[in-house]
């Protein structure tokens, strides 16, 4: 895969890959919502168009952020799983959620609240650790 980067800045290079409207949403859906099949993604409330979803899943796979494999119980169905590289995005997602919680509630009061958000507010590291632990536990049951 050949990726065009605007410059050699590490921040800009990351944004060149992850700054797309859908890339981190797909990672979040996998990590937090348990999405793992194409059908799972198409049924999400974010309503990503199927052609865009196909393209982004392919790109995430090419980048090594996700792995496409077959379901152990149904070899016809593709399964998308986060790799270690994908799980390394957890701190980015945690910081984005923290920022959103703190600065967007006044203009978007419907942002999710509750027990998980309280943990995020009170202990970001514990929240991030729990996300990774739960996802790795899920991976262990699939592999």
UniProtKB/TrEMBL annotation:
InterPro entries given in the database record: HTH_HxlR, WH-like_DNA-bd_sf, WH_DNA-bd_sf
UniProt superkingdom: Bacteria
Keywords per UniProt: DNA-binding, Transcription, Transcription regulation
Gene3D superfamilies: Winged helix-like DNA-binding domain superfamily/Winged helix DNA-binding domain (1.10.10.10)
UniProt xrefs under SUPFAM superfamilies: Winged helix' DNA-binding domain
Record-annotated HTH hxlR-type domain positions: 9-108
Thylakoid in keyword set: no
Pfam families reported for this sequence: HxlR
Key word Transcription present: yes
Regions annotated as coiled coil: none
Name by which UniProt lists this protein: Helix-turn-helix transcriptional regulator
